[in-house]
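[Structure tokenization] protein backbone as discrete codes

[Encoding] learned vocabulary of local backbone shapes

[Begin record] amino acids and matching fold tokens:

___
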Amino acid sequence: MGFLSLFVVALVPILKVLLVTGVGLLIALERIDLLGANARRNLNAIVFYVFNPALVSSNLAKTITFSSLVTMWFMPVNILLTFVIGSALGWVLIKITRTPQHLQGLVLGCCSAGNLGNLLLIIIPAICEEEDNPFGDSDCSTNGEAYASLSLAIGAIGIWSYVYTIMRISANKCKKEINLDDSTISIRTSGETLEILSEGCTEALLPSKDCPSSRECSDEVELAHAGSEGKQKVPFLEKIKQQVEILMEKIDLKKVFAPSTIGVIVGFFIGLISPIRKLIIGDSAPLHVIESSAYFVGEAAVPSTTLIMGANLLKGLKGSDVSIVVILGIMAVRYIALPLLGVVVVKAAHHFGLVGSNSLFQFVLMLQYALPPAMSTGTMSQLFEFGQSECSVIMLWTYAVAAFSLTLWSSFFMWLVS
């Protein structure tokens, strides 16, 4: 199959995403105002609490079995590698571009987490529906849906544990700096300049609301006190233990066990336990109506999320103070460095027998490295009320370029595995 034919096959699903995104952008305009700020917030809540959990649980329950999970064991490892490699490249980008403090968490989030769920649920079924696809017609749709569902499940856990923690720490750190700058007042009395704290900063003497726990705040106070008295020698293993304890306390378990994560647990529970699976999954199952209802509700997640994505891009058109160098750096990480390293990882895994000869599975593994930043980073910036305009600009340009990069990389990956 020629590269041009593969290019056309890869172009169709990308055009679908662009068209629906364009509709979302259009109905968010002030003249139409169907997806204004309040409407987006309400629809986003419905997607977060209803559509996404229904989508994840129904797809996993229907497509994941114990035998299929054994064959796909490398996918969670591959997704972990996308986070690790993306974070390392993001850290290098921050050092090279000297990214401002308030944007560092956002840059790390955009570089480390790709859109591992919704885009794959659009792209892979659309490719399988094409007559000239290189994966065949028999098992492409079934296997592709299973791969996309598992990618969505593992990606949701990674994003709401790792990326959420990074962005929350960064936002809290910047807010503390702003509060300290705003609360310090200089007054001159009797020829001397004194610095006092305003009334709003008296809370700093108590555990701050920005601190996830009192342990974290006490750790900060102890570190500052230790620094004032002089450096003390701490065993290396003790340092590691302290850092792990602090990191675990900073992880918000309520966000780790988000509705999507609960949907993942339910989906695995139904799919992997045979008696329950026979009771719910399948046209002849006694409780088949539960599965069909959940799948019916979950189908609304992908178009709704894509519409919200288009509406959120509207704010990016208004611009922000984010540097063009930072935006180009994020695109270089996500669309050049990560896909190239992804090819190396997947080919090495196949060479050592970690990945089978299934061409569609290899294609999905490679595609996970070439996806644009996860839209959940935008949701997090809105949640923390920090860096929203910068995030919108980054999403605008990265998703505009993704239309071309995803098509080219998808064509190249299909050619590589076929």
About this structure: The longest strand covers residues 184-189.
